Amino acid sequence: MSQTLFTNATLACVDGDSDYGLRDDFSLLVKNDQIAWLGPMAQRPNTADSEIFDCEHRLLTPGLIDCHTHLVYAGDRADEFEQRLEGASYADIAAAGGGIVSTVKATRAASEDELFEQALPRVRQLMSEGVTTLEIKSGYGLDCDNEIKMLRVAGQLEAELGLRVQKTFLGAHSLPPEFDGRSDDYIALVCEEMLPRAHAKGLVDAVDVFIESIAFSVAQGERVLACAQQLGLPVKAHVEQLSDQGGAVMAAAHGALSVDHLEYLKEDDVARLAQANSVAVLLPGAFYFLRERQLPPIAALRERRVPIALASDANPGSSPVHSLLLIMNMACTLFRLTPAEALRGVTLNAARALGLASEIGSLEIGKRADIVIWDVGRPSVLSYRVGMNPCLAVMQGGQWRERNAVVTA
Ligand code: NIG
Ligand code: FE
Question: Could you report the per-residue pLDDT of 231-258, keeping only the tens digit for each?
Fold first, then answer.
């Protein structure tokens, strides 16, 4: 049996309903892959057979969770970034055949190995800042074989890098060019062939749809979510990103784990999310990168106690962002979240958005020992600094993943 006793730690447990769940001068015991005990230093167990890790009053948090990414894809869209700086909008570029569809062409042309190689540095960058669980969506293949190829690469990243990866099927991300003018036919293909085949291969943990004027209607999205539910799969949706289509209310009515983006969500619709227990996943990277002006209804989400999660939305078009620490800062500066809300957004509430809150997301007895040791004394510093990475060591499922010599006890 392997045991590690962390001593002299400041814990941000992210337990309870709000705030950091801060404990000073604490000790935490990991046995095998779980948190077995935590309490004040004076009460720490006498464990002669444990490895002792003296934190010297540094901060420990749960492993960070990036609950919304599109980071398996080929190529980049730096040329569209230039076009947007010259005045074209994200929607203009999509309407002219660029946008998501240009990444679809590059992704279809890439082999599984090429996709893996291109995704690797993106995942490593997120991991260097303490990410222990990552969600990856398909959605740049848009046919059976290419969606399956993307999901297989997501699985391979999990197998080779040792972090946890949740695979989300997003076949209804955009209309592939060969279905131009026949979007209902494409939705039928998604429901009748693409999703069932990907699911039969064990490649789908959840199903997502993009409901927007440049993507699919609420009725089409509903069809996909209903098919997912028939297969017993949890659902989520990209909604109200560029306009208010009513997708969030529909997805919540289907018991969505999360509804994501939400800049154009009406305050009156927030109650429906609360009733459904759906998590609001906010994506400040896309808000920033697209220079969006419309803010999500944060005050109403808080008032109705809808859990708020944050994610990178790492993708080549609207959020080429690969840092959850930067996302925490953006959530505070752009959306006026508190640093405590930001930490909860990338830990416990992100776990809820993935349906994994009983296993990960907080420092509590019985949860998996996914733990980050930061070279800071207080949790607000994580949201405050930009461009610094104070991650010193990461334990994933009770095993050391990265460990900086500075804190080796
Ligand atoms: O979450 N909104 C739709 N999907 C992505 C953008 C994908 C892309 O532009 O390639 C998003 O922002
Ligand atoms: Fe997205």
Answer: 999 999 999 999 999 999 999 999 999 9
- The single-letter DSSP state of residue 60 is E
Q: Does residue 370 contact residue 360 with C-beta atoms inside 8 Å?
A: yes
284 CB less than 6 Å from ligand 1?
A: no
Q: Are 166 and 134 in contact (CB under 8 A)?
A: yes
Q: Which helix (H) or strand (E) holds 335?
A: helix 324-335
Residue nearest (by alpha carbon) to ligand 1 atom 9:
317
Distance in angstroms (rounded) separating the CA atoms of residues 191 and 407: 51
286 lines ligand 1 (CB under 6 A): yes
Q: Residue 46: what pLDDT?
A: 87
Say if CB 141 and CB 149 are below 8 A apart. Answer: yes
Q: What is the pLDDT of residue 130?
A: 98
Interatomic CA distance for residues 287 and 312, integer angstroms: 11
CA 231–ligand 1 middle distance (angstroms): 25
* The two three-digit tokens of residue 90, written as one number: 């994200």
What's residue 404's pLDDT? 55
The tens digit of pLDDT for each residue in 277-317 reads 999 999 999 999 999 999 999 999 999 999 999 999 999 99
Atom of ligand 1 lying closest to residue 100 CA:
10
pLDDT at 32: 96
Give the C-alpha distances (Å, rounded to integers) separating 318 from 103, 249, 266, 269, 315. Answer: 12, 24, 22, 25, 6
Residues 345, 383: Cα–Cα separation, whole Å: 11
| CA 252 distance to own-chain centroid | 19
Report the predicted TM-score, pTM, of the whole model to 2 decimal places. Answer: 0.97
The CA distance from 371 to 398, in Å, is 8
CA torsion sign, 64 to 69 to 74 to 75? negative
Cα separations in angstroms, 94 against 51, 83, 90, 167: 54, 12, 6, 25
CA angle 286, 401, 279 (to 5 degrees): 35
Residue 90 CA: nearest ligand 1 atom is 9
Residue 270 CA neighbour count, 13 Å, CB half:
21
Atom of ligand 1 nearest to the CA of 140: 10
- DSSP string of 150-179? HHHHHHHHHHHH-SEEEEEEEEETS--GGG
> Which of 170, 238, 264 is the best mutation target for the ligand 1 pocket, counting ligand atoms within 8 Å of the beta carbon and taking the most?
238
